[in-house]
Amino acid sequence: MPRVDAVPPGHARIKVTACGLCGTDLHLLEGMRLPPGASYPVVPGHEVAGTVAELGPDTEDLLPVGTPVVLHSLAACGECRNCHDGRPGDCAGGEVLGLHRPGGLADEVIWPVSRMVAVPGVDPRQAAILADAVATAKRALDRARVPAGGSLCVLGAGGVGTHVLELARLADPTVRLLGVVRSPASAQRLEDAGFAAAVSGADLRGKGPFDAVVDFSGDPAEPARGTRLLRPGGTLVFGSVLEGELALGSAQRVQVRELTVTGVYSSSMADLRAVARLATSGVLDLSASVTHTVPLAEAPRAFATLAARPPGMVRVVVVADNFTNL
Ligand SMILES: [Zn+2]
Ligand SMILES: [Zn+2]
Predict the structure, then answer these.
(1) 288, 102 contact by CB (below 8 A)
(2) What is the number of the ligand closest to the CA of 95?
(3) In this structure, which ligand is nearest to the CA of 90?
């Protein structure tokens, strides 16, 4: 790992404590096509928690050395039209941690201080998964616009979808929730957490209709199932990474019921700050979400686990080799 010696203006050197893995990291290992501006070799890892080790020039003293932080994975340019319009997620000049710039499967990373949030007192493994698995779930829930006391079904309640359920329950304990998963073991995991659950493929008639359906299943057949589960005026939030066309089932159903279909992609700093607040205040307990912890020296084992998707897996987190408390 080449060490970058000088910390550029506005940046900090972060000593990595924990780094969550997600599907994108597996795709990288398989040599996926990279977004414009990125090239191999890549140091993966975009769910990064660590401590501020060194501050570069022009960094306000908001996050002093020693502060535990979680990094937002996008370093937006801050100057383009989308950045000015408050849509840094659409910044064409933005750089992604673990794609354009070396990510968290390393001892340290260099990252803009403006794209970090302090997470005092949060277990670093839980802090790491806030960055994507939880912040993206927050964004999906916001886009679902579930009315007070309404209902929400999550198709693919795994690494991200589980957190949609958690955040929905925190926001409104009266919302009726259903998580749909692949295996009976995952259904049991959801039920142990107090959620109604069904195994995908099961007959969901009688379970709906729902005000909103969020799909993180990665299954091309699920969006059409989602529109079937919606009440008139309902919203489908599509968050799966899929190649090819999006199939929504009956055109008439979408039209006559006046359904809303929206995508969700990644998250904003506001989303990350919101979930970090929930974690630091102790309201959001993610201990059940970190199902696998692997030291950095054994990172290949973490990838193997992620690829095998053992029943009940939620998130695989790689930790610094000196991480205690395993
Ligand atoms: Zn991810
Ligand atoms: Zn920009």
Answers:
(1) no
(2) 2
(3) 2
d(CA 287, CA 307): 22
CA distance 285 to 281: 10
| Nearest CA-CA partner of 296 in 40, 120, 124, 111 | 124
Calculate the average pLDDT of the chain.
93
Counting ligands in written order, the one closest to the CA of 86 is 2
Instruction: Look at 124 and 36; give whichever has higher pLDDT.
Output: 124
Model pTM above 0.85 = yes
Tell me which DSSP letter residue 220 carries.
T
**pLDDT band, very low/low/confident/very high, at 1 (cuts 50, 70, 90):** very low
Residue environment code for 104-131, b if the CB has 16+ CB neighbours within 10 A, otherwise e: bbbbbbbbbbbbbbbbeebbbbbbbbbb
Contact 109, 97 (CB under 8 A): yes
Instruction: Note residues around ion ligand 1 (Cβ under 5 angstroms).
Output: 22, 24, 132
Provide φ and ψ at 177, rounded to 5°.
-120, 145
